[in-house]
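so my prof wants the structure for this chain in the tokens format not the other one, which i didnt know existed until like an hour ago. anyway here's the sequence
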Amino acid sequence: MQKESKFKVEKSIIIPIILFAIISAITIYATRGLVSNDLQNLYLKQILWYIVGFAIAYLMMTLGNKFLYNNAYIFYIIGVALLVLVLIFGKEINNAKCWFVIPYIGSFQPSEFMKIFLIITLSRMITDFKEEKANAEVQDEFKFLLKVLVIVGIPSILTFIEPDTGAVLIYFIITLIMLFIGGFKKRWFFIIISTIIIFGGIFLSIYFLKQDLFIKIFGTSFFYRMDRILNWSTSSGLQLTNGITAVGSAGILGHGFSNTPIYFPEMQTDFIFAVYSSNFGLIGSLLLLSLLIYFDFSVLTLANKSPSINDKLSVAGIISVLIFQQIQNIGMTIGLLPIMGITLPFISYGGSSLLSYMILVGMLFNISNENLRFKN
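here's what i got, hopefully its the right format
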């Protein structure tokens, strides 16, 4: 009699991940004709990162999500410590201290893993609060939200200093979505959004009307960062111009595999969608978009099936990261959104980013496994 496998994962989750791995490898390979010699073997490294990522996902299935939730605060402290250390010992690349450089292996970006630690920590915090305060009063929720503000604020400030504005934005999106799914009173979201609008208005007023004062308060570096973000629609540059040219000239079927017509910076990372689209055209792009949407809906379905509040909250955080990065990355590639250095999940090259996604996949595998066992 054949022994039944201990671990089960729904096909709607694992098949898209395998397809993402194939698409990622062949798209990174397609950049070889236009990049320097030291970047020629990145597709092999990406395959290796995927192998390591699947091993990590399997390891997480042996540990279970409860292990993550039980040790959430330890992971959070580790994440904050890494963000502090990278500001001290990290290597400065393009005027940013976001990475540790590990010889013979590559770079390591703590902010990628801080997203995971925040999801786990907020899931634990919200679940504990709801269990302890089943009928929470307004003052109870207010005190709890202040704690959340501190928990999210510390890594946000550290990440902003690096600077990595895109990661900070993701931290806040994770927080808002998880609090909303957590069932907190709608008045808090009205207050939060109103506060953001008021302070955002003051901030932008100083930027546009009192630029000298803005530079005195925030510094020259941040001023130019804001200038690049806010003036993205009227600005031009090699990266965006050539990226749009590569996409726009691809037509229905594209230029053909490994036939990217023009060079643009960050081909393997931030602008990987432009490479894919230029190679496989409109039809290929629509197929990739359909696969991304299918995977996102599969993840949402997974949350609806789960009996665990912790897991439902975690999926809310995971899907908020995936959807935001998908929209932002593809949008900036085709000139609809400002360039913020955000990668396309599972497709862009990067050891830190890919391993962080595979840890999230490991969490999804655990939820899928529990759902199937609960069903049976």
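also thought this was worth mentioning. Strands lie at 91-93, 96-102, 106-108.
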